[in-house]
Amino acid sequence: MRPIIVLVAVAALAGCGVETASTAATAAAAKKQEIEQGKKTMEQMQQNIGKAMDRTQQNAERADDAAKAPQRAHRTRQTAAYHLLAAAEIWG
């Protein structure tokens, strides 16, 4: 009778070990999936940040060009006025 009790106890303990190993494997698989998802999210965020930086640079360049436009227009008017005066002197 005693060997049967020992055998049942050993079988029960062995079953617990298998269940523990299975639980650990499941937890490891879930953690791996979580890490992979985190990496994908990080890559997407890096791409979004890169695009935002590009847009910011483009907006800064446009603003710079817009600020220079009145200066160019003023120089163009000055040049046109100069040519009109020069032509008036020549023909005048």
Please specify the SSE layout and strand pairing.
Elements: H1 2-91
Any key phrases for this structure?
mainly alpha
Structure report:
The structure is a single chain. This protein has 92 residues and is an all-alpha fold. The chain has a domain at 32-92. It contains 1 helix and no strands. The protein has one helix at 2-91. The longest helix is centred in the middle third of the chain and has 90 residues, at 2-91. The radius of gyration is 40 Å and the shape is rod-shaped. The N and C termini lie far apart (135 Å). The model has no long low-confidence stretch (mean pLDDT 78).
Brief overview, please?
The mean pLDDT is 78. The chain has a domain at 32-92. It has one helix at residues 2-91.
Q: Main beta sheet, described? A: none
- Strand residue content: under 5%
Distance between the termini: 135 Å
Structural class by helix and strand composition: mainly alpha
Q: Total number of helical segments?
A: 1
H-E string: H
Radius of gyration from CA coordinates: 40 Å
Helix content: over 70%
Average pLDDT rating: 78
